[in-house]
TrEMBL record:
Residues 80-152 form the Transcription elongation factor GreA/GreB C-terminal domain. Keywords: DNA-binding, Elongation factor, Protein biosynthesis, Transcription, Transcription regulation. This is Transcription elongation factor GreA. Belongs to the GreA/GreB family. Necessary for efficient RNA polymerase transcription elongation past template-encoded arresting sites. The arresting sites in DNA have the property of trapping a certain fraction of elongating RNA polymerases that pass through, resulting in locked ternary complexes. Cleavage of the nascent transcript by cleavage factors such as GreA or GreB allows the resumption of elongation from the new 3'terminus. GreA releases sequences of 2 to 3 nucleotides. One of its GO terms (molecular function) is translation elongation factor activity. InterPro entries: GreA/GreB_C_sf, TF_GreA/GreB_CS, Tscrpt_elong_fac_GreA, Tscrpt_elong_fac_GreA/B, Tscrpt_elong_fac_GreA/B_C, Tscrpt_elong_fac_GreA/B_fam, Tscrpt_elong_fac_GreA/B_N, Tscrpt_elong_fac_GreA/B_N_sf. The gene is greA. It comes from candidate division WWE3 bacterium RIFCSPLOWO2_12_FULL_36_10. It holds the Pfam family GreA_GreB_N. GO terms for biological process: DNA-templated transcription elongation; regulation of DNA-templated transcription elongation.
Length: 152
């Protein structure tokens, strides 16, 4: 049984776009490079052939990965009870300051842009909570207490 994989609508569209580019342009482009390199003769010492085959392996791997993700993908919808959900922007108070996080599906996570996965320790602790609630999260520096200030 495959578990659902929750994504934001934007994240799902981005992954679909990447999948389409890989299938429609990148895969054929790599195939042409391989054919061209093969036409040069001996492939055992042909750097272009080796590089094209490596790129083909990467492209095919990513196509397979995206195919699996897209089969399991479910777009998260906003809850009517005002609690944190995948796709929410959450402002919290922690350690003397405020921080804002965007709760996203695991394939979309980018901590440098404050996009945190709903599967991460902080993300999973925030899910289902409401404004005013406090959560405790174990971090490398110790236990951090987050107070939810705003959910959008």
């Amino acid at each position: 049984m495959t578990a659902d994989l929750y994504l934001t609508k934007e994240g799902l569209e981005k992954l679909k776009g990447e999948f389409a580019v890989l299938l429609e342009s990148k895969r054929p482009e790599v195939a042409k490079r391989i054919k061209s390199a093969r036409d040069m003769g001996d492939t055992s010492e042909n750097a272009e052939y080796v590089a094209a085959r490596e790129e083909q392996a990467f492209v095919e791997g990513r196509i397979s990965e995206l195919s699996d993700i897209l089969k399991k993908a479910k777009v998260s919808v906003k809850t009517s009870n005002g609690s944190v959900f995948v796709g929410a922007t959450v402002t919290v108070h922690v350690d003397g300051g405020n921080e804002t996080f965007y709760i996203v599906g695991a394939p979309e996570a980018d901590p440098s842009k404050n996009k945190i996965s709903h599967e991460s320790p902080l993300g999973s602790s925030l899910l289902g909570k409401k404004v005013g609630e406090k959560i405790s999260v174990d971090a490398p520096i110790g236990k951090l207490i987050y107070t939810i200030l705003k959910i959008e």
